[in-house]
Write a structure and sequence with these properties.
Helix content: over 70%
Order of helices and strands: HHHHH
Radius of gyration: 21 Å
Number of helices: 5
Strand content: under 5%
Structural class: mainly alpha
Oligomer: single chain
Amino acid sequence: MSDDSVHVPKISLTERLFAVFLRLVAISCFWFGLNYWALLIGYSFNGSGRFDLLVIPWRVAAVTLAVTYPVAALGLWLLVSWGPVIWVVAASAEIVMFGFYPAIFGQKPLILILHGLVAVTFVLFRAVITFERIRHSRTARFHSP
């Protein structure tokens, strides 16, 4: 006699920790987005960073990141597949800004290090989760009746 009920796979500890990690990154993305919006509307830097006072490269970068970071935060918080993709776009933009054009945007080595750490942590989590799924599927195949 076969069991009719649906078996929901259990979420591993690694997957739960990965979800917590993604949500922490989402909170930081939302914060970065708020900072860029504060810059654009003149709330930060005593109004000297308002959109109309910025040079063209900063206008393009700040507007792009002010929109991209909150979208990435939403995707990461909801744990959907496009969230990390949008984060990569935003992080890549900041890496290009502060890593390759420091004469225009200034130097922020901490931002570069943090983006690198988040990317490495993401890849490590995905590798461990993939390894666990492969191991679980092999044991399920060998123990099937």
